[in-house]
Amino acid sequence: MASNVTVGNATINGYNPANDTNVATFLSVVVVAWSCAFIAACLRFYTRAILVRSFGKDDVFMVMAVLFGIGGFVCWIICCKNGYGRRQRYVPRDELSIVLEAQFYESVLEASFAFGFLKISIALSLLRLNRGGRWYKRILWTLIGFTCFYTLFAFITFLTFCRPISGQWERTPGTKCYNKELYRDFGLFNAACNITTDVMFATLPVPLIWSLQLQRRTRIYLIAILSGGYFAVALGVAKAVFIIAFVHERDGTFRPWAPFFGALQLDMGIIAACAPTLRPLLGSLLKLSDHGNYKDANYYRAGKALDRIPKSGSEKRGYLRQNTASGVFVEGLTSPDPEKWAALNREKTSFTATVHNGGSVKDDASGEKPSIDEDAITHIPPDPDFKGIVKTTEFKVEK
């Protein structure tokens, strides 16, 4: 029987361990996952900035998460080019040094800041729902503060592992590093924090979304998309398992499972966070619109309109009238007379509404001239798709 024993770098029976490589598998999976995440993010930015024009703070933080994710992805490519997927004892020392340096920057850019900005973006997006009451807001702001804490903690642990920092990829005389067990424990703490916030962000909005006055199909779609966060939780658990094995791993370049699952966790998190914002873009395709003649109801833009309504008196109630064709909210219809409001809703012609401190409404049909500046006048154009139904959003303004 032929021997299968390998001595040094010798080839026996046509097998050479120096030629073992997993790089194609790791690289293809990460490239596909990151491409999906990047496309989802770009579609989100287009939908928010161009389609519905409600680009907010949560989108700004998502941009930052994507930018840092790009940096981590570049580091991953460098690692694959110089040693990932190959047995460590056959990786030249200079290439191994490049791998370790790229791995360090990947940890800083991706495992700390990209995850941190992603979680803050998700929290700010959930704050847009604004239907959970005071406790809901307090929980989200607490999660934002907690995310900031463990993100900075992770960043500090990466910086202080070795002194000088370059000792992490090139050991020189005088280099001091704390032991691998402590480094593993810090990594486990960071992974546990990411898993905890993933579970919270995937679970917290479910009862609120189910209570929204939307089609059941739409609510199921949003809940299913947010449940994608549980896939990120599963990937985070897998990452934690391999962080535990980090201390005893002797072939980290051949099986870089911890950074591999970490990269996939970030990609899945971006996809899960961006998918709900694509409803205005995909609504007609997936039949998610609330009515065939209505575009997606932009509740965020309605909230922006409320911010510009003059606040006088202790309290006001009224409506934001939405054009059925354009989906644009009309600002400033406060406390109208019920009969007059009903008449305005039945009209198929354009009219102009104004708001002033008294909270009354004046229109073209009355023949009265506006008593305030023209900047406060909102003109409602004729709606070619008007069929006797006007979508309104009730609001309440408190002093």
Number of strands: 7
Estimate percent helicity: 40-55%
N to C succession of SSEs: HHHHEEHHHHHHHEEHEEE
Mean pLDDT comes to 74
- CATH architecture assignment name of the largest domain: Up-down Bundle
Structural class: mainly alpha
Strand residue content: 5-15%
Which descriptor suits the 3D outline?
Answer: globular
Spatial separation of the terminal alpha carbons: 91 Å
| CATH-defined topology of the largest domain | Rhopdopsin 7-helix transmembrane proteins
The biggest sheet, with number of strands, parallel, antiparallel or mixed sense and barrel status, is: 3 strands, antiparallel
Number of helices: 12
As laid out across the biggest beta sheet, the strand order is 4-3-7
At the first level of CATH, the class of the largest domain is Mainly Alpha
Number of domains: 2
**What low-confidence regions span 5 or more consecutive residues with pLDDT below 50?**
1-8, 290-336, 347-399
Radius of gyration: 28 Å
Pfam family, one: Fung_rhodopsin
Main location: membrane
Keywords: Membrane, Transmembrane, Transmembrane helix
Subcellular location: Membrane
